[in-house]
Amino acid sequence: MSKRLEVILIHNPGRRANRFFLASPGIFVFLFLSTANAGEASSAVEKESLKAREISRFHPQYGYVFRFPVYDYPFNNSDGYTAPSMRQSLELTKNGAQAAHWALDRQLIDIGGKAAPLLSSLSIALFDLLNAYLPFGYSWLHEEFHRAVLSRRGIESYNEVYEFEFFTEAIAVSGIEDQALIGFKRRYPAEMVRLASAGYESEIELVNRMKRESFFYSIPGHLDLISYWYNIGTTVSYIHITTTSEADRTTERLSSGEGDSIGDRDALGLDFLAWVYDLHRPDEPYEQRGVHPGGIGVDRYILRSDLTDEEKKYLKLQSNLSFINFLSPFILGFTEFHTCIPEIYVIICLISTQA
Q1: Does residue 302 lie in a domain region?
Q2: Model-level pTM?
Q3: Between the CA of residue 12 and those of 7, 63, 95, what are the distances in Å?
Q4: Beta carbons of 203 and 141 less than 8 angstroms apart
């Protein structure tokens, strides 16, 4: 049984009171303790729909819903106290991005005149580009999902987003000794596979969360549109690169610049090469990867040339399937559809909520 204590901030940008609150525009705070079976996703459509109907009573116009899971059990109790969990890092990134999107849009709509929509879109695009390299931004979320898999088993690591290296080729999860990864692969081979895929999972889950709230809470589709394209686009391009010869050149370039310090090395190298490699080799000892090119420690990074022909085909298939993430009306700015026939409207809503 997992338990989560959340603070929910509902920002109401409206200018009129409603029958529930005779209040000026502001932020309403709600505390609740939610419980769910560990195997059940908290984002289940039925639960979100009920919650949306309850919360939507308090804001007559569109407004973001900011959740702050201040306590996530049992993850936060792992190895003394461990944070953030995947859920906590996801909400922090979503909250920061959407708060910035809303603030930029409202300010520029008020002062921009006829050029306001263009200025709003450009400013949000610039913010999202920078947000990819900032703490609590998109890359930070990607790396925190990797770290959460390790933290759950008491393995400490460091998110190098905190080094503030803007527009760098790669951001590492470092500070991990080889012996920790050797033991992790031996005891938890399935979680070794999850370790490699967790970053991809974070970006897709972020986009799905934004889409769902846009649908349920009537948030204008253009506000988070660039986030959709950025996160889906980087994920699809990442997995595509690992199917080409450029993957090996990138890996060799990263390895050559690392030096002798094992703690400075990334946990994985290119995520999807490590993912498909360990997926097909659950019983292979981690140390069998060989010696690092520098002569010290395990060679952690998998080359595309290390994969069998079957594994390369499997990776190519996953690369092709990743384009399915673009098949959504949300990434074109459509968050809802209206029809004069109620029955058709209901069917469309059901299809949308199942997406």
Answers
A1: yes
A2: 0.80
A3: 16, 5, 15
A4: yes
- Residues with Cβ within 8 Å of 57's Cβ and at least 6 positions away in sequence, in order, are 18, 20
Residue 16 burial by CB count (10 A; 0-12/13-18/19+): exposed, middle or buried? exposed
User: Residue 250 sits in which domain range?
Assistant: 86-354
H/E run at residue 29: strand 26-36
Residues 62-77: tens digit of each pLDDT: 567 888 888 888 888 8
Residue 71: half-sphere exposure toward Cβ, Cα within 13 Å: 9
Separation between Cα atoms, residue 206 and residue 95, nearest integer Å? 11
Is there a domain that residue 181 lies in? yes
CB contact burial 74-112 (16+ within 10 A = b; e otherwise): ebbebeeebbbbbbbbbbbbbbbbbebbbebbeebeeee
Domains identified in the chain, total number: 1
One-letter amino acid at 2 equals: S
Report DSSP state, residue 169: S
| 66 phi, psi to nearest 5 deg | -105, 120
DSSP 252-309: HHHHHTS-S-GGGS-SSSSHHHHHHHHHT-TTS-GGGG-B-TTSSSB--PPPGGGS-H
Structure tokens, 155: 């393995």
- Here the tokens at position 95 are 């909250």
**Pick from 246, 292, 288: nearest CA to 270:** 246
The C-alpha angle with vertex 175 and arms to 173 and 176, in degrees rounded to 5, equals 90
Tokens found for residue 132: 């990819």
* Residues linked to residue 66 through DSSP beta bridges, in sequence order: 9
CB atoms within 10 A of CB 133: 18
Angstrom CA distances, 177 to 142, 185, 266, stand at 21, 13, 10
In a domain, 53, yes or no: no
Which tokens hold the place of 161? Answer: 């987003």
Q: Say if 75 falls within a structural domain.
A: no
Which residue has tokens 């949000």? 124
Give the pLDDT confidence of 273-320 residue by residue, as tens digits. Answer: 999 999 999 999 999 999 998 889 999 999 999 999 999 999 999 999
